[in-house]
Structures are given as structure tokens and as C-alpha cells.
Amino acid sequence: MQKFGIAALVVLGASVALALTEHHGVDLAGIDHAVKPGDDFYRYANGAWIAKTVIPPDRASEGPGAILTEKTRERVRGLIEEAAKAHPKPGSDAQKVGDTYASYLDEAAIEAKGLRPLGPDLSRIGAIKDKAALSSYLGGTLRADVDALNSTNFHTDHVFGVWITQGFSNPDRNVPYLLQGGLGMPDRDYYIEQTPQMAKLREQFRGHIAAVLKLAKIADADKKAAAILALETGIAQSHVSRADSEDVHKADNPWKRADFAAKAPGMDWNAFFGAADLAAQDDFIVWHPSAVVGISKLAASQPLDVWKDYLTFHLLDHYSSVLPKAFVDERFAFYGTALSGTPQNQDRWKRAVDATDSALGEAVGKMYAARYFPASSKARIQAMVQELLAAYHARIEKLAWMSPKTKEKALAKLATLRIGVGYPDRWRDYSALQVVRGDALGNLMRAEMFEYRRNLAKLHGPVDRGEWAMVPQEVNAVNLPLANALNFPAAILQPPFFDPGADDAYNFGSIGATIGHEISHSFDDQGSQFDAEGRLLNWWTPQDFAHFQVASAALARQFDAYRPFPDLAVNGKQTLSENIADVAGLSASHDAYLLSLHGKPAPVIDGLTGDQRFFLAYTQSWRQKIRDAALRQRIKTDGHAPAMYRGDTVRNLDAWYPAFDVKPGEALYLAPPDRIQIW
After folding, report:
1. CB atoms within 10 A of CB 394
2. Which strand (E) or helix (H) includes residue 626?
3. What are residue 50's phi and psi, to 5 degrees?
4. How many angstroms separate the CA atoms of 169 and 537, rounded?
5. Beta bridge pairs of residue 486
6. pLDDT of 152 above 60
7. What pLDDT is stored for residue 486 in this prediction?
């Protein structure tokens, strides 16, 4: 997964790998031998597992990767409860972690308080009397976006988000990037696409808005809900698409502070930036200028009362998790069931763990890494990383189509990759974050403000290229193009992703392909546009880049042909970065696996050759069972292709064909010239 932001997304776009049992290596029982590998390798590798797997009622999808996430959450719960029982020192990280968790769990206290904790914020909305006051309120609720590229819509109760990191053209200085936001549904298409399915979701969303307003005893809820939906539709019409949002050249829009009034009239920008504590900031990058312009126009053209109703709804909806149970249930009915098809909300303790992770992620991560990430695992992963880097180096040197000049730049970028394994070198300081036991809503608000102020502080200090984008207890991995860095959190570096008891064929097919995937993001359609220092700079010769684009377009067409529903296909352009990373990562990991044999023949284990174990481990790492509603949502909003098509990436590697005796005429067969190899 590639990120241009500073935190998390999905579990590698899908759930992964095999059951958490004592068996090491390939899940033999999960294979469906009735399916020919060449016709549907994903179903061959996973068909028996799919047939017997049931999605738990509190999840939108299931897979051993999701099981690993649950296991990690249970471990974190134990660590938090241990810390709380130890009577930690007041003001310590352990005290803050324990009190955040306990406060979230205290439903009786939350119920007794009702909406009183939101009283000051509701009063501020009610006091908005003119455009300047509206702009000031919007600026005062600006918050730090933690995932700029992978989220086309920022947090629901903020019309803009800000992401603070090094600049596109000057990676030695941090700048604020302004991002589109303000939508309650996942993406602009949910508002503007004219299909029966989207029309139904819009009506359900309107009903959700009205229900939230009614719970707060706000009059004329149905009428106000219709007006709020109309306002959000106007906001959505100003948003760019997911594919356009990923185009960094369209995002590279430097604006001076004085430009906003001229380029985006309607908003009182002095009031906005003053309330956002950005009045003294002169340089910005506007990632989504159409949204900034469009929302500014709406600030001037739409009635203040509609804006106030919109802000009231989003305030209530955003903090519903720490409001009385009726608000929790109503939010889940729309976001959990209507949007994702999930019938049952997660247990309160699971949500409490997630809330604590969100507020004090590295404080929890420090405890997690100390308990569950042994030095032996870190050393072995670091060794695998070096083997993958060596494989990439060799692949780049052998590229017949790449000129020496471009190769030199590519190898320099590879040599300067900053790779973090397990946990960061420096832990985050939470001393300025106040946590009050029994104040669940206040704790959440203060955590959001702490994170915002932590990010604002970056504007006045040096760039920290060692900052992590993920916490150690996250089951994920990431490439950060602007920092030319990779993060592999501790939680993904355990079975089934990395199995210390399995052989190299299995581990290179599973975690090795993941490591290769993240390395390759530095050279995909997006990462390839950044140099070794993270500067947005074209380091390709025109001929080399033209070849790269032709190969990328062919891969996009391959994925365009995948259609999980009659009315909905995969978007090859939207998923291109991840698809390039899958092909390149798997290819490099196979090379690294062969190098690990040191010229010796691979052993046969469980009746499988080394190549068979390698490819099965890879495709089993993408096994998943997902609800239709959730799959539809991911296709619309996710940069990753659905799991079953990622698992069939093997069809682009020559070595897969003899390993499973794949012949012409079989469904997945590609003639050698049609097998996509970019790196």
C-alpha cells in the first residue's frame, strides 16, 4: 500500500493468508483440487477455505488477515488492562492509555451525560450569524488528515482536511496541503452517480441524517435532512474523482496565503486561517483546488441556517461513538449495515481498543512491540529486506529497455530507501495530551486537537524522515514516497504473513511479496515520479518513461477486464499503483527466493515443489470472503483491486506456468508477450 499521508488505511486492501494453526507453511486443506490452477488459481488455492468460511456478523469481510487483526486487538486489550491494574503514575502513558480505554467502556456515564458534553460546540454553531463566523467555525474545526492519498474524502465533519509534510518541490521543508472533505458518504460518486443502487443509498443517508437530528430533538428533521443532503451533493460536485486525486501532478498546486481570496472567493479566509492557527502561514499546496473553490462558493451562496444544520448533524455523527447508545446504533445502521452489509456492530471493548489506538497509538505500540515482537523476527525480516533490495538491484540492472541514465537514478533511489521494521526508532511524546477518566468525549476531542497541534508544529521544525506512518500494532505495511521510506509494523510480521516455522518458499511468497510490493511502490506510476530525496521530479528519459507508460496501460487494461458484478468492473487506472506493486513485488520476491537457494535444488515439502509453495503462499495471502455491499464500496473507493484478482497476479510470471502445468486455452493463460513485467 502506498501512502502520501501519515497513518493507516485497510489491511493491505484485503484480508490475507491462512488459518492461525500450528501447521507451518501452505494451507493444504484450503486448496480446491476440483479447480484447474490455470482456469482460476485464486479458487484453486482457496476454494475449500472459502466454502467452509463464514463471515462473522460484526465484520464486512473475513480472512485470516482479519483473524490476525482480531488476535492483535485481543493482545492490545490485555496490555491496556494490565497497565491500568498496575496503578500507573498520574500523567504517564500507561495512565493515559488505561483511562482512555476505561472512559470509552463506561457506557453508563456516557448515557447519563447525554448530549451535555457537546453543549458548548452546539452553542458555537447556533451563534453563527454571518459568513465570517461560519468561516471561523470551519477553520476552527480543521484537523490533520492522516491519509491524504488513500482517502478522497476527509473526516465527515470537516469540509477541509490538512496534511502537513514535506513539500513536493522542496522536501527539506514542511508545508500544509489542503484537502477536500465534507461528505458523509464515502465518495463523490455516491452523490452524483445515477444508478438504482446509489439512489437507494442516498435515500438511506437522508434517512440517517433525519434520524440523528431527531435523536437530538431537533425540529423539522426531515426537511433539514433533505437540505443537508442537497448541500453535500453540491460539495460532492466540486470534488475530484479517486483517480484524479491520486494524480500528484494535479495535486501540485502551490498557493500563497493571499491567493485564497482571489482564487476561491466566498469564504472569509482571514477568519478561516485565523481560527485554524494558520494565519502566519504563507505557503500552501492545494491538493484539490476544485473543492476549495466550490466549497468557498457554497459558503457564500447557501443559507446560513442550512450550513448550521449541516454542521450540527456532522458534529453529532462524528462523535456518536461516545454519545448515548441510540446514536451509536443509528450510525452503525447506516455505515455498518447499509454501506457495508455488516449485520452486527463490534463489541464495545473492540471499539474501545481502536479508540485508544487512535488517540495514543505509539504509546500502545511501545507496549505491544516490547511484548510481541522478538529480536529474532526483526533480524530475519531485516535480512529478507536486504535480499529483496538485492533482487530489485539486479532486476533494474538487467532491464533491457531502460537507459543507463535512468538506471543510475533508479538505483540511487533504491539505495537511499529508509526501511523501518517493527517500530520507530523514536517514540512519540504524549506528555501534552490530557486524558480525564470518565470524559470519553472530551478525551476524543483532545486527542484530535493534540494530533492537529503536533502536525502544526512540523511547520516550524526540520523534516523528520524517520517519522512512522503506522503504529506497531497495525496489520499493514506502507511506502511513503515523499520520505522515500517504508514501514513494516510488528503486527504484520507474524504468522500467517511471516511464519518463522515455515520455509523460505512460503515466507518469500507471503511476507516477501509484501516487502517487494512496498519497495516497488517507489517505482510505480506514482512513486516513480519522486526522486531519491522525495522531490516530485521527472528523472526518466522520455523514451524510458514512454515504455513504462505503455506497460502500465497494458496492466490497467488487464484489470479493467475483471468484473465481479454485472454492473460494476474494477477500475484499472484507479488500482494501477497497487497492481504494479503486486506484479513487481511478486517478481522480485521470486528472484530473492531463488537467490536464497544458493544454487541448490528446492526441497519438496508436503508434496509441493518450492515454486508451488511460493505461488500458493502468495495467493493464499489474498484469500478473502467479503459481503457484496462492502465489495461494491471498495471497488468505488479503494486503490486496491479486489482480493481474488490480486491473487491471480501470478499469471504475469513465467515461473508460474511450469509450476502448475498451465496450458494455452486455460482461462488465466497469457501468451509470453502478454505477461506484464514492468520492473
Report:
1. 13
2. strand 625-626
3. -60, -40
4. 8
5. 419, 479
6. no
7. 94
Q: Which residue has the cell 483440487?
A: 33
Task: Give residue-wise pLDDT tens across range 286-332.
Answer: 999 999 999 999 999 999 999 999 999 999 999 999 999 999 999 99
The three-class DSSP label of residue 625 is strand
Asked if residue 7 has pLDDT above 90, the reply is no
Q: What are the backbone angles phi and psi of residue 165, rounded to the nearest 5°?
A: -160, -175
Q: What is the mean pLDDT of residues 237-259?
A: 93
CATH of residue 292's domain is 1.10.1380.10
CA distances (Å), origin 432, targets 84, 435, 495: 20, 10, 36
253 and 147 share a domain? yes
432 part of a folded domain: yes
* Angstrom distance (rounded) from CA 42 to CA 644: 6
Three-state DSSP at 34 gives coil
User: Tell me, what's the pLDDT at 525?
Assistant: 78
Nine-digit cell at 345? 456492530
Q: Under a CB-based contact definition with an 8 Å cutoff, are residues 657 and 93 in contact?
A: no
User: What is the side-by-side order of every strand in the sheet holding 485-489?
Assistant: 418-422, 485-489, 478-480
**What is the Cα gyration radius of the chain?**
25
pLDDT tens across 331-350, in order?
Answer: 999 999 999 999 999 999 99
Domain that holds residue 363: 35-76+352-674
Q: Cβ contacts of residue 22 below 8 Å, gap of 6+?
A: none
Domain identity same for 277 and 386: no
CA 542, CA 15: separation in Å to the nearest integer?
39
Note whether 287 and 218 are same-domain residues: yes
Backbone CA torsion sign across 339, 345, 350, 356 = positive
List phi, psi (to 5°) of 584: -65, -40
Cell of residue 364, nine digits: 500502545
Q: What is the CATH number for 485?
A: 3.40.390.10
Residue 202 grid cell:
442516498
Q: How far apart are alpha carbons 447 and 444 in whole angstroms? A: 5
Instruction: Give residue for cell 520520505.
Output: 483
Q: What is the mean pLDDT of residues 427-431?
A: 97
Sign of CA dihedral 352, 353, 355, 360: positive
How many helices and strands (H and E) does the chain possess? 28, 10
If asked whether residues 365 and 317 sit together in one domain, one would say: no
Predicted confidence (pLDDT) per residue in 198-222, tens digit: 999 999 999 999 999 999 999 999 9
Q: Give the type of residue at 566.
A: P
Copy the grid coordinates of residue 129.
450569524
pLDDT digits (tens, 9 = 90+) for 571-603: 999 999 999 999 999 999 999 999 999 999 999
Return the higher-pLDDT residue of 242 and 651: 651
How many C-beta atoms surround the C-beta of residue 28 within 10 A?
A: 13
Q: Is the per-residue pLDDT at 82 higher than 80? A: yes
pLDDT in tens, 14-36: 333 333 446 789 999 999 999 99
CB-count burial class (<10 Å; 0-12, 13-18, 19+) for 107: middle
For residue 4, tell me if it sits in a domain: no
- Residue for cell digits 426537511? 223
pTM to 2 decimal places = 0.90
284's grid cell: 500552501
The answer to whether residues 484 and 605 belong to one domain is: yes
Q: Are 242 and 273 in contact (CB under 8 A)?
A: no
**pLDDT over threshold 80, residue 228:** yes
